[in-house]
Amino acid sequence: MTALLEISGLRVSYPGVDEPVEVVHGVDLVVPQGRKVALVGESGSGKSVTARSVLQLDPDATIAGSIRLGGQELVGAAPKIVRGIRGSGAGLVFQDPLTSLNPVMRIGWQIMQPLVIRGVSKKEARERGIALLDRLGVVNAAARFDDYPHQFSGGMRQRVVIAIAIIAEPALLIADEPTTALDVQVQAQVLELLHEVADERGMGVLLITHDLAIVAGFADDVVVMRHGEVVESAPVDELFAAPKHPYTRGLLGAIPRLDSDPSVRLTSVADYVDTFETVDDEPAAPAAENGAAR
Amino acid sequence: MTALLPARLRPSSSPRRAPRRRRRGVPVAERIALVVVVLIIVIAIIGPWIAPYDPYRVDLAQALQPPSAAHWFGTDVNGRDVLSRVLVGAQVTLSATGIVLLITLVIGVIVGTVAALGGRVVDEVLMRITDIGLALPSIILALGFAVALGPGLQSAVVAIAATWWPGYARLVRSIVRETRHAEFVESAVALGVSRWRLVTKHILPNSLDPMYVQVTLDVAAVMLVISGLSFVGVGAQVPSAEWGAMIASAADNVLNGWWALVFPGLAIAITAIAFNLSGDWLRVRQDPTLRDGGAR
């Protein structure tokens, strides 16, 4: 299987007070063609920074290592090449559909934009936009095409955001916590939609999330990050059945389950690893084996 | 039971108290103001044609006539019809104000945007120039221009524009700095949108709302400064029907010819108030979330 996205030895640092602060310490990650990879980890683990460095969205970040998208090296590439990748090589779905749409432009204009800036005629862009919006489950897409973002509900807006991200047919879709701002029911709909559309178009997906519950039903592979490093990387079934790293066990142990014994307390990640330890975790003996190892 | 509820929560039983359907958008005061603004602009355009007398014709026999059927606003010390001069003066004063604000807005938006997006050195240089501009008092500068270019409305316009743009540049810069970090801007970058398009379609349309308000508020302020400069003698010159110049020349005869001073003064006041009130309405209109009556 060919690798669509291949990240190796990625280091990202930001300017600090005295010296640059490195927040991602040598991450390796592969998204094979047409597969869905979930990048999970707690807040501040560097998962977003890792994913966003593919499109080099942050001008302050210093990126070292290697990021290859479809064989093309992006680290140190000319700005023109990076811009060409944005939108058509890799699309990005943002976390908050309430703030990631331009409030003064009609949603149709925003959906057509990735095509229009690539020289597609307005008429064709409009047809493709309406068709895509319709496919994404927006009722009466043609009529709503000229509405403003505030006239859409949160779930509908996230569909618009997805439409914008995939209309230029990127080979890779990066979804940065796409459902965090939505309620549980809409979360499920949006994820299912993402799953379907990705399969239809043969897109690879890199899903960034801190919610392990949505990973199981969505992803093929899981990469667990902590403190800017990858602690574990495995196919989803394997990871859930037999997590190798104590941190992963801690994460899984912290999920409430319907069949767990109500009298037994859920464990915290802190029971498995030292939360304040920054790098080089030695696997520690977990304090309790509740839930995680089953 | 219902008496316990505050009035606005009480179910209204009598048809008389049933809430009247408020027409969407423009409240009464703003609506009147808008009508006045339109009226003033129309007068500014057609003023010379509807003026009953030649505003520049001196007729000393008719000097300082009080308001009458023949001369509604009376005549000034030179026997010129005040109504005609106020009507024609609208054109002079408003076009000068408009030109000042146009120049100001263009320079302010360009300088502010470039400073906000252009990196630290560019920002520093432009903002220090802006500070210098802010430090210059427009009256003094206008006096300087009057010496250099000769006194006249053009000198006043150039002088006011030269001292007015820095405020706009600062405002635009601070708003653009905020807008460029908005998530929808980052999202546009992630789509491969060019820098030019990013600025013109994403950043500026979301940054200029406060500018429109500022412009309408400044119509009044700029008009007053133009009139003030004319009053001290470096703006519009004597025969001109500019409102400030009219007040200046009428000030000597305020006791026996108050009308020659009061009517151009009223014209300035009414125009200023009408533009200020319209500014708020314009802000509401520019915001699509308010325009369409909120979220569905």
TrEMBL record, chain A:
Keywords: ATP-binding, Cell membrane, Membrane, Nucleotide-binding, Transport
Mode of membrane association: Peripheral membrane protein
Source species: Herbiconiux daphne
Subcellular location: Cell membrane
ABC transporter domain boundaries: 5-252
Name of this protein: ABC transporter ATP-binding protein
Pfam family, one: ABC_tran
PROSITE patterns associated with the record: ABC_TRANSPORTER_1, ABC_TRANSPORTER_2
GO molecular function: ATP binding
Family: Belongs to the ABC transporter superfamily.
SMART domains: AAA
TrEMBL record, chain B:
Biased composition (Low complexity): 1-16
Descriptive protein name: ABC transporter permease
Similarity field: Belongs to the binding-protein-dependent transport system permease family.
Domain named ABC transmembrane type-1: residues: 90-279
InterPro entries referenced in this protein's UniProt entry, alphabetically: BP-dependent_transpt_permease, MetI-like, MetI-like_sf, OppC_N
Topological type in the membrane: Multi-pass membrane protein
Source species taxonomy: Bacteria, Bacillati, Actinomycetota, Actinomycetes, Micrococcales
Pfam families: BPD_transp_1, OppC_N
Keyword Iron appears in the UniProt entry: no
Region listing for Disordered, in residue ranges: 1-22
Subcellular location(s) per record: Cell membrane
Keyword annotations from UniProtKB, A to Z: Cell membrane, Membrane, Transmembrane, Transmembrane helix, Transport
Protein's organism: Herbiconiux daphne
